[in-house]
Amino acid sequence: MKRFGQRVAAGLTERNAELPHDVSERLRFAREQALARAARARAARTSVSTARPATVQMGATLALGGGPRGAGKDNGLWPKLVSALPLLALVAGLLLMQRGQVHEQIVAAAEVDTALLSDNLPPSAFSDPGFAEFLRDGQE
């Protein structure tokens, strides 16, 4: 990337002699402004990048319950348990969803059984394979 920039700069410098004076002055002024902005951005990026790791490290350590004493040590079982909480929450949610689906299936079967037992039907209707489907469609 640096080589490309140098080639572009060399090409522009070669053609600089052909430009009128007012255009070359505007380009010079714009170049100075761009260099000043780049220097400010580099300085800001450097100051932010040097200050950020210490802040983030301290924040992460304090959030996990370590504090300044345990900054470089293994804090034992507590951080491991805290990091396992999202996995436990996921497993608990999946188990609750499965339990809800099983409950819905039981309720649907109970409704069909109730409809079958409470209606006056001939015994041949119970052996018809499409009869349960008919009952489900009628209840919705």
Automatic annotation (TrEMBL):
Lineage: superkingdom: Bacteria
Pfam families per record: DUF3619
InterPro entries xref list: DUF3619 (IPR022064)
Protein name: DUF3619 family protein
